[in-house]
Structure formats: C-alpha cells, structure tokens
Structure prediction request, 287 residues.
Amino acid sequence: MKLAFLGLGVMGYPMAGHLARAGHQLTVYNRTAAKAVAWCKEYGGVSRPRPAEAAADADIAFMCVGNDNDVREVALGPGGALEGMTRGVLVDHSTVSAEIARELETTAQGQGVGFLDAPVSGGQAGAVNGRLTVMVGGTAESFRIAEPVMKHYGLAVTLMGPSGSGQLTKMVNQILIAGAVQGIAEGLNFAQKVGLDAAKAAGVIAKGAAGSWQLENRFQTMLDGKFDFGFAVDWMRKDLAICLAEARRAKAALPVTALVDQFYERVQERGGGRWDTSSLIHLLAKP
Prediction:
C-alpha cells in the first residue's frame, strides 16, 4: 500500500520502520527534517517538507505526534495532512483528547477521508519489537482498511467504538498505570524498610494475584534508582491532565489519579521530568 507516516519520534520512528520492512511504500514527514532524512537512509522511502505533501494520495496516513496542538497543526494547519488528502484513511496514533479525535473525524469525513483515533500502549520497547496495544475509535469500514497494516507493529489491535473511543480507552490505560506504579513504589519501599529482600519479594509477588507488567518490568530498576529511560514523567502528566479534564466533563471521580498526578509534579520539581514514570519511588526512598 502507499502509506505516509507523520511524526518520527521515539514511537513513530520504529513503527514506520515496521511498515517499510513489510514492503509498503512510505513517504514520511517530521518537523525536524534531519530525522526524516535519517529514517529514509535506514529504511528507504522518501521524505517531504510538509504533512500535506507526505499524505497526498496515501491509502493510509499515520500520525504520531505530541499533544492536541501538535495534532491540530500536523493534521489541520496550513500544509496539514488533510489539506493533501482526498481519499484514504488518516490514523492518529498520538495520545490526545477525545474532543480533538471527534473534531478530526468530522473534518476528514467532510472531504471524503476516513479517520481513526488509535493511541498505543507498550512504550518504546513495544514499538521497536512490534508488540504494541492499539486502541481504536472510528468506523468499522476505516478500521477494516487500516487494521491489517497496524498489525505490523500492533500485537493487539482492537476497535473500541465510535470516534474518540480509542482515546478514552487510552485514558483508562493511563489511570490504571498511575495507580499501579504508585502501589508498586509504596510496596517496594515498605519491603525495604521492614528488612525484606525487596527484589526477591517482588519476584515472588509478580507471579501471583498482584502481578502486573509494571511490577515485572520495573521493580529492579526502581530498587536500583535508575529512571533514565522509558515513558517520561512530563508525558505522563500531559496524559493525566487529559484524563482529569475528561473526568470532570463526565463527572467521574478520579481521586487516586489526581493524587498521583501531584506526586509526579513533585518528581518534576526534583528535575525528573524526563525520568521514567516508575520514578515515583524516588519520593519515598528520598523524602
């Protein structure tokens, strides 16, 4: 298929790479042009200086950028993707609000283009290894077109409902992670304070009812105080702000999420904005 990929960051770069390895014809765009040039040197394909030029005539144009404003700029702004698309499907892998997803669908449909909001979970490792979870909102027809392509980097690709449903599902994902990581931080800190071999305790617990991906993959680095990797606190706070705003609109209580968001703010104040989200334990280990 003729594809476009807009946004070659930590996630987008390897995701687009999987599509190229699968034999698809790719045109890429990145705001930092040098990264697009580097991607083309590694994977082939061509780069274009504007999203509209990259997305023109694409069967599917994928987008993976930062926040609502980035999505509006890349999709709807002057020279944006939808300026160049008259057919096909625009798939947004960014984690943004459900509101912007619905706005994009309305605009896309108005010019005969399908739209899917399709945020992902699994982090950089999931993107590199092609094992992402993709949560999708949109029409069944657009999903039918894009699903087989997304499976090149998605271990689980699921249509959750109409436009915005993918973003709402990602909000649930982030709410669960926030609570889980705080619980793990408290548990590990407690284990150390009472004299247990915390690593041994975590290894046992990870195989039982309290087991989770976060515990399995983060307990050792949390105990070692290593946080210079993974999903940054700055990005998590961006995501939690989206969750909390949507919760206010829906009148859904998120007391633990709001509290953990405050803890992440304290991590930022310590200079940990780029630390992994597991750095919550730093507040307990070094109060």
User: Anything to note?
Assistant: The chain has a mean pLDDT of 97. The beta strands are 2-6, 25-29, 46-47, 60-63, 89-92, 114-117, 120-121, 132-138, 154-161. Residues 169-285 form a domain with the N-(1-d-carboxylethyl)-l-norvaline Dehydrogenase; domain 2 fold (CATH 1.10.1040.10). The first strand starts at residue 2 and ends at 6.
